[in-house]
Design goal:
Layout (H helix, E strand, L loop, with lengths): L3 E6 L3 H10 L5 E7 L4 H11 L5 E2 L3 H7 L2 E4 L6 H13 L6 E5 L6 H14 L3 E4 L6 H17 L4 E7 L6 H4 L1 H4 L3 H17 L10 E10 L6 H11 L11 E9 L6 E9 L8 E8 L2 E6 L5 E5 L22 E5 L3 H4 L2 H13 L8 H20 L3 E2 L3 H8 L11 H4 L1
Parallel strand pairs: 1-2, 1-4, 2-3, 4-5, 5-6, 7-10
Antiparallel strand pairs: 7-11, 8-9, 8-15, 9-10, 11-12, 13-14
Helix pairs in contact: 1-12, 3-4, 4-5, 5-13, 9-13
The structure holds nicotinamide-adenine-dinucleotide.
The site of nicotinamide-adenine-dinucleotide has 22 residues, from helix 1.
Amino acid sequence: MANFKLGFIGAGFIAKFQAKAVSQIRGVDLAGVCALKGAEELADYANKAGIGPCAVYPSVAELCKAVDAVAIFAPNMARIQLMQEICDAVQAGAGIKGVICEKPLGRTVAEAAQIVELAKRTGLPTAYFENQVHMKGIRAQMEQLAPVQAQMGPLALARSSEEHSGPHEPWFWDPTRQGGGVLSDMGCHSIAVGWYVLTPVGKPATFLEPISVSATTSLLKWGVPRYRKELLDRMGVDYAKTPAEDFCTGIVTFKNPETSQLVQAQFTNSWMYDKQGLRLAMDGLGPGYAFELNSLKSPLEIFIGDQAAEAAADTELALEKSTASRGLLAVETNEADLYGYVDEIQDAVASFQAGRDGFLNFEYGAMITKLCQAAYMSAEEGKTIYLTDKDTQAALKNYKSLISQGRGAEVLF
Ligand SMILES: NC(=O)c1ccc[n+]([C@@H]2O[C@H](COP(=O)([O-])OP(=O)(O)OC[C@H]3O[C@@H](n4cnc5c(N)ncnc54)[C@H](O)[C@@H]3O)[C@@H](O)[C@H]2O)c1
């Protein structure tokens, strides 16, 4: 059988990470790239890494004609336009077998609904990329604990966090383009993985019903004048005028529809975690059992003293969002695998080949968007948001957080 040809739309940070993931999967090529910037470089990487042949395409339409599936790896504000272009290409006869979209599916509930609608028009299977649900560590604890869970009952509390020192591109920091701050950017990961680990083994990913969300958003580091100036100088984004939250925490309550048991997922996210680099931390507590995962605990540590510091040319070789080039460094040797990228691509390709949606489809992505937006609403209104309430559901349909409107100063200071 010929290799499955993937086409990437976008050639930035995540596209490069996903290319590393592709290099670890048999039977899948990165065959094409279409991007405003960086396409040549990524295609060159693919060809040198032996995961091509990979060509650069000038338009989404041309890319869709040349590959078996396309993945939207471009910034959040380009989602609708790109999904529309994919839809037009398919309606004009492009023979792709599936569409992948990175998180978040939309910046608002309305945008996510539009993406779902456009994907439906194509009639194609979809895969929403939420890598943490695919992490080998998360899957392994579930497998290991399945017999315990069957005897003792499911997990009752999950706590998930993703934190680093701040994003790499200006558009992430700008709430009007990104859709918010760290809650929109990384809260989606933590809410999704919390929901997933709480789900009783063998049940679908949406089995537990979201009942309520309560959250707070705050600006703890990047609003302080000294760091606000640093951000303005480095990224051109002015948090005196259009701030976004650099910290969020909250609780989502779910109900088991068979037993009516309530379980909770707590999420915490920050752009002010100035430790070694990115840290994903999850734990789960069940009756008489537990699991704990910390992505910064690597079996490999490197020490670089002050005198030798010049030798560390590229600190991100050690870890995503590395903050240090000396001292005791945590080194992760295969982050594309550790964070679940390898497994999510494998799942999408196998699913599309079988003519079905990936493990998480666009409808699921739209639900995660809704939970994130409910969290913004909760933080803005200072109260718990009940998703069981019809008026709340109606309000969420057209809700756009103050922070994403550029009015963060009204809620963050
Ligand atoms: N799952 C994860 O852990 C993870 C990590 C980082 C980013 N992401 C998501 O991936 C997406 C991209 O993020 P990134 O960090 O790679 O961004 P980035 O800014 O590093 O790269 C974006 C790429 O998209 C291209 N692009 C922009 N507009 C385009 C358009 N209209 N058409 C074609 N190409 C266009 C840019 O030229 C660039 O190549 C975002 O939605 C982000 O939320 C997910």
